[in-house]
Design brief:
The chain is an all-alpha fold. It has 3 helices and no strands.
Amino acid sequence: MTGDRIELDRDKLEQGFASLVLTVIELVRQLMERQALRRIDAGGLTDDQIEEIGATLMALEEHMTELREQFGLSPADLNIDLGPLGITDADRR
């Protein structure tokens, strides 16, 4: 900070913003994946629905990889602890 001015590095700001947005998207992706697995385990989906969910989740993961690479981020940069949201009964066994 120089006097009353804050000096910002545009590249760092852009990468920080991208990291924040991609972290939120990754959180939602992980929650969707866990919910899909719960629905599959419950047996309430047809084979076609399971296939469609799998293809959709794989495509979303591919897009996330492309975006991480575009902004120079690693999966660890988007690592978030889901706490109790990320733990299922199957995870505890």
